Amino acid sequence: MHLAALLFASALSVGTLALDNGVMRTPPMGWLAWERFRCDINCENDPKNCISENLFIDMADRLAEDGWRELGYVYVNIDDCWSSMERDAKGRLQADPKRFPGGIHKLARYMHDRGLKLGIYGDMGTHTCGGYPGTTLDKIQIDAQTFADWEVDMFKFDGCYSNATEQEKGYPLMSKALNATGRPIGYSCSWPAYQGGLPPKVNYTLLGQICNLWRNYGDIQDSWDSVLNIVDWFFENQDVLIPAAGPGRWNDPDMLVVGDFGLSMDQSRSQMALWAIMAAPLFMSNDLRTISSGARTILQNKMAISINQDPMGIQGRRIVKEKTGIEVFWRPLLKNASALVFFSRRNDMPYRYQTNLGKLNYTFGSYKIFDVFTDKTMTLKDTTDFVVSVNPTGVVMWYVSAPAKRNLRQKFRQTILQNKHWTVETDKGSLRKNK
Ligand SMILES: *[C@@H]1O[C@H](CO)[C@@H](O)[C@H](O)[C@H]1NC(C)=O
Ligand SMILES: *[C@@H]1O[C@H](CO)[C@@H](O)[C@H](O)[C@H]1NC(C)=O
Ligand SMILES: *[C@@H]1O[C@H](CO)[C@@H](O)[C@H](O)[C@H]1NC(C)=O
Ligand SMILES: *[C@@H]1O[C@H](CO)[C@@H](O)[C@H](O)[C@H]1NC(C)=O
Ligand SMILES: *[C@@H]1O[C@H](CO)[C@@H](O)[C@H](O)[C@H]1NC(C)=O
pTM of the full predicted structure? Predict the structure, then answer.
C-alpha cells in the first residue's frame, strides 16, 4: 500500500466511538508509582521510598519544578497499597492513616494547586493484587463516588481476585458509576490483560466505549528483556490493536522504565521511540528526585512527545522486519507528516541500514527529515537512497514532513522553516511555529 492508501485505511478504522467523558483525547502523560516503588510500606526504615503521601508530594514537586509539567507530564498516580486494610464505618475505602495522614482529598488539592492531576488505584475483585480491600460488584458505586468526592482525576481498575463473569459485569458498571458522579475521571481498565489481550475473549469495540485506556498485557519490569517482550507482543498483534486506539481510547503497554536501572541509554531511546509510535500512555515509573540527565533528556524530548501526542491518535505499525534484525516502524501524523523508527535487534555493532523512502511506500516528492534524538535535519527525495546507522538494541527516529513537490517550492520553504523553529503545544499535541 502507498502512504496515502495506508493513511486512508488507518482513518477508516477510527470510526468507533470513544468513552464520552471528554478526557485523554491524546495519550495521558505523567508518573505512576508501581514499577519503581511497588508495595514498599516500610516507612520506618525507608521513609523516602515508601508508599506515602510524601512520595507523591515529592514527585509532584519535581514534575512542577523540573520542566515536566509543561511538556504534558501532569498525572501523579498512586498504585496499589495506599489504603487501609479496613473500610470506614460508612463502608468507604480510606487511605492508610499513618502513611497518608492528610488523606487523599488533600493530596488531590495539592496536585490541582500545581496544575497537576491525581490518579488512584482500585481492584475489581475481593482484594487488590497486594491484598488490600478490593471493589466487589456491590461496592462499585460507593467507591466511584468516594474517588469523585476526593476530586481524583484518574482511576486504574486492576483485576486480581475476580473471574471473567464478574469482570464482564464490573468494568462496564464502574464506567457507568464514574460517569454518574458527574466528575470526568480518566478510566484505566486492566480487564483485557486478565483475558489474554485478544479476541474473542476481549472485545476492543466495547473497551473503547467504556474505558479511556487499558492494559492489554503483562506488567513491565526494569529490564530490556521485559521491554522487548512487550514490544514483540504489541507489534505481533498490531492488526488487532491498532483499530482499537484513537482519541480518548488507548492501548497501554505499561510504564516507561527510562531512568531506572535496567536500560542502557540506547534502550531508553528505543522505549521512548516505540511508545511514541504506539500512541502509548507515557507514565514514567522512576525516581524524579535522582534521575540522570541522560534519562531526563530522553523523556523530555519534545519531538518524541509531540509524535506521541499527535491529535489524530492513530497508533503506528511495524512495516519492515528484515532478516538482518533491523525493523522499521511508521506512524501517520497530522497534516500528512509521519514518524519513522529504525530499530536494531542486533547485538554486535552499529548496523548501517540502507533503504529509501520509496521502498517504505512514501509517494513521489521531497521530504524534510528531522532526526528526533540528534536534532539533525536533511531533505530526501522518495528515490534517494540513504543509510542510517542503528546501534545494537537502539533506534534512529525521524519526524518526516509532508511531501513537498517541485511545483510547490514556496510551500516547501515554509515547511522547512516550521521544522527549524518548531515548538510543541502539548495540550493540542501539535507543532507550532515559533514567534
Ligand atoms: C508497500 O506496499 C506494498 C504493496 O501494497 C506492500 O506489499 C508492502 O508490504 C509495502 N511495504 C511497506 C514497507 O509498507
Ligand atoms: C456521562 O456520559 C454522557 C453520555 O455519554 C456524557 O455526555 C457525559 O459527558 C458523561 N459525563 C462524565 C462526567 O463523564
Ligand atoms: C465467579 O464468581 C462468582 C461469585 O464469586 C461465582 O458465583 C461464579 O460461579 C464464578 N464464575 C465462574 C465462571 O467461575
Ligand atoms: C463487542 O461490543 C460491541 C459494543 O458493545 C458490540 O456491539 C459487539 O456485538 C461486541 N462484539 C462481540 C463479538 O461480542
Ligand atoms: C495530504 O495528502 C493528500 C494525498 O496526497 C492530499 O490530497 C492532501 O491535500 C494532503 N493534505 C495536506 C494537509 O497536505
Answer: 0.92
